[in-house]
Amino acid sequence: xxxxxxxxxxxxxxxxQVKGAKNSMLPIMxxxxxxxxxxxxxxxxxxNIYDLHVxxxxxxxxxxxxxxxxxxxxxxxxxxxxxxxxxxxxxxMRSSIFLMGPLLARIGKVKLTYxxxxxxxxxxxxxxxxGLASLGVQVxxxxxxxxxxxxxxLGTDIHLDxxxxxxxxxxxxxxxxxxxxxxxxxxxxxxxxxxxQNFLNAMGCQVRGAGTEKIRIEGVPAAGKCHYRIIPxxxxxxxxxxxxxxxxxxxTLHEIIPSHLDAVVAKLKxxxxxxxxxxxxxxxxxxxxxxxxxxxxxxxxxFPTDLQAPMSAxxxxxxxxxxxxxxxxxxxxxxxxxxxKMNAQVNVKDRNALITGVxxxxxxxxxxxxxxxxxxxxxxxxxxxxxxxxxxxxxIDRGYESMEKALKQLGARIERxxxxxxSP
Length: 424
Ligand code: UD1
Description:
Layout: E1 3-7, E2 13-17, H1 22-31, E3 41-44, H2 50-61, E4 64-69, E5 72-77, H3 87-92, H4 100-107, E6 109-113, H5 126-134, E7 138-142, E8 145-149, E9 157-159, H6 165-175, E10 181-185, H7 191-202, E11 206-208, E12 214-218, E13 226-229, H8 234-246, E14 250-254, H9 262-270, E15 274-277, E16 281-285, E17 294-296, H10 308-315, E18 321-325, H11 334-341, E19 345-349, E20 352-356, E21 365-367, H12 371-383, E22 387-391, H13 394-397, H14 403-409, E23 413-417
Parallel strand pairs: 2-14, 3-13, 9-10, 17-18, 21-22
Antiparallel strand pairs: 1-22, 1-23, 3-5, 4-5, 6-8, 7-8, 10-12, 11-12, 14-16, 15-16, 18-20, 19-20
Helix pairs in contact: 1-2, 1-7, 4-6, 5-6, 6-7, 8-10, 8-12, 10-12, 11-12
């Protein structure tokens, strides 16, 4: 298994360009299944991350031709579209669930296995299934398989019990070719949902209201080819802002959308980090880190759960006590145990973590238990005295394109060693 070896104590400086968002790219790749024209969907600004290759393999297995070159992805429908998503893919990446909506819309059936839980807690799909059922989908569950089919999807009103990002996206993709109008109430408002709406509209669909809690979809007979550029990854951007701040460095991130990071920038400022912005960049300047009173993760526009772990790493070095409340996922504190191995002072109880800032973190051998936990450990290692080894780097590769290269470009001492990792 590959590891990162990090020598801590070097300030980051310089600039980085941030590529397309993983959480936009995955549903948009799934939505490409809706294309029934004789041409291709072409997606730009695609990051070379592990999850891209998993989704590419899924589309291949469903009968699409997928070519990835530079940062461009071309997805072309084949003669026949298959409806079974192999179990291996479902286990590898929860986002395989995104294929449900588009396959039902395009060919009226889909068969897949439960994505199951993962290391950040149980991740049910009840909201996806309930919403699909109200659009007229029949769902059968047998021997761990979910088989869903619909003669005809019919537009309807859907009230989500919780603004789930994935359920909102799956239901939009199911509804775009349905007969009549669908309105999704209490929809998630994340920027990636707006990106999905814009992509679907570029394919000829009619979706309005993304970014608000009410999304209206007018069914159209067919969707076609288009060119589309994915929005920059706000979570990657936030991670590198925090990396700069934890080392006391000065880093500028280019080609980002600063407004997507408003809640994050506000919390960083509260933690004493100096930040300046332009229309499409943010610069972190040296500041003196101090504790934040309470950091609560929330659906957008609140502080994103995906940046809770990296922010925790930063707060381990901030003077005073910071309380973190994880409201979105049940078990998203696994990085805390690893941070403690690096001399962090943290007390976890249920969904709360109390972090007391320490003067020095020390290098240690730690384990990346999931994608964002892994990023948090890299950040702590950058600021720690001595050398750290971060195991199971493939988790980090799921969402960050060559993190070690990006950080080296900013002056970090980080190497990738060992191997080979599971290949998608
Ligand atoms: C997406 C993001 C993930 C991010 C999360 C929250 C992608 C590919 N992933 O995940 O990076 O951390 O949003 O911002 O976009 N829930 C249910 N039933 C459901 C669906 C969700 O109870 O049917 C619960 C989940 O268990 C969780 C909460 O709702 O506690 C939020 O999940 P959701 O918003 O659906 O996140 P994902 O779409 O899985």
